[in-house]
């Protein structure tokens, strides 16, 4: 029951009733996010990011989980995934426990329900350990590059999650505030990934939010080919109560990721949303060029949906 309204079991409702109740869920006080998973590799370096993501979880009324990845010692983080040093398992377990304790310390002033758990392994295997063990959440959150002690591990985790988790990935700069998403940018090219990104955005945006549908192309002709698709997306967003606007940016000089990021900053957008592309090459995981650029440089909050 919420504000005196009792929500029925939707499985026993007619299609019309389900539509009404789901509309109430979206437009009422119900928070759609109930589980937020953050991933870090160093409790000290990630402390500002952890406080940001804790505020996000509190504002959403969500349970916060933090996966702490502790790689075996290396001669230098710049050499990852090579340069690992052998240490006894008991020593690595101690490093893991200390890293988890640092995360608890960074979150001590926040009252939101949370779990903190650690993984320790060779740096080359940690992303796979996370994928196999703890990746089920409504949204997964990573910090910007400077919040990771081992940049290669962050890249590997992002690649693995975009390709294999099936969960939206939010890359969140330390100073970001997306407790309320009232202005969002949807980077659009017709694809299954972009459509899934659209659905994820609908769950995060505030009622009556303004959403810009933006296509970046090298030529005006390339942009104009997407007019019909823009119309469909605008109609869909309008039916959900959002103000939707279509924009085409012709820019053959700058990479699309840079163009979209600059546009999001100019519009003071709370969130930039894109569909993520990934494919396998031999035994490695390789992101499409635009997605890779967003992962490597994130100065605005970016939601990537694979």
Poorly predicted sequence stretches spanning 5 or more consecutive residues? 1-31, 279-287
Largest sheet: 10 strands, mixed
Beta fraction of the residues?
25-35%
SSE string: HEHEHEHEHEEHEHHEHEEEHE
Tally of separate helices = 10
Number of strands: 12
Question: How are strands sequenced across the largest beta sheet?
Answer: 3-2-1-4-5-12-9-6-7-8
Helix content: 25-40%
Task: Name the average pLDDT.
Answer: 82
Radius of gyration, in angstroms, nearest whole number: 20 Å
Characterise this structure.
With 306 residues, the chain is an alpha/beta fold. The protein has ten helices and twelve strands. The radius of gyration is 20 Å and the shape is globular. The two termini are 34 Å apart.
Summarize it:
The radius of gyration is 20 Å and the shape is globular. It is α/β, with parallel strands linked by helices and 306 residues long. Helix 4 (126-133) runs parallel beside helix 5 (151-164).
């Amino acid at each position: 029951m919420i504000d005196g309204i009792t929500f029925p079991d939707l499985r026993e409702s007619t299609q019309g009733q389900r539509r009404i109740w789901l509309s109430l869920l979206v437009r009422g006080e119900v928070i759609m996010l109930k589980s937020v998973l953050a991933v870090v590799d160093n409790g000290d370096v990630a402390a500002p990011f952890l406080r940001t993501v804790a505020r996000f979880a509190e504002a959403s009324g969500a349970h916060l989980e933090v996966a702490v990845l502790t790689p075996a010692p290396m001669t230098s983080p710049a050499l990852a995934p090579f340069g690992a040093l052998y240490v006894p398992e008991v020593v690595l377990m101690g490093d893991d426990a200390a890293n988890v304790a640092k995360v608890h310390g960074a979150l001590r002033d926040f009252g939101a329900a949370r779990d903190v758990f650690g993984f320790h392994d060779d740096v080359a295997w940690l992303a796979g350990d996370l994928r196999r063990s703890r990746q089920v959440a409504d949204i997964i959150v990573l910090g910007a590059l400077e919040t990771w002690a081992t940049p290669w591990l962050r890249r590997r985790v992002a690649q693995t999650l975009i390709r294999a988790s099936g969960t939206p990935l939010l890359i969140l700069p330390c100073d970001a505030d997306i407790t309320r998403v009232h202005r969002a940018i949807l980077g659009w090219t017709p694809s299954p990934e972009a459509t899934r990104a659209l659905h994820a955005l609908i769950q995060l945006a505030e009622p009556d939010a303004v959403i810009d549908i933006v296509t970046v192309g090298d030529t005006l002709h390339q942009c104009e080919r997407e007019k019909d698709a823009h119309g469909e997306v605008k109609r869909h967003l309008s039916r959900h109560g959002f103000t939707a606007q279509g924009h085409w940016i012709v820019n053959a000089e700058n990479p699309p990721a840079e163009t979209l990021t600059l546009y999001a900053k100019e519009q003071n957008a709370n969130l930039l949303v894109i569909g993520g592309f990934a494919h396998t090459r031999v035994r490695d995981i390789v992101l499409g060029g635009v997605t890779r650029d967003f992962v490597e440089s994130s100065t605005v909050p970016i939601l990537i949906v694979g």
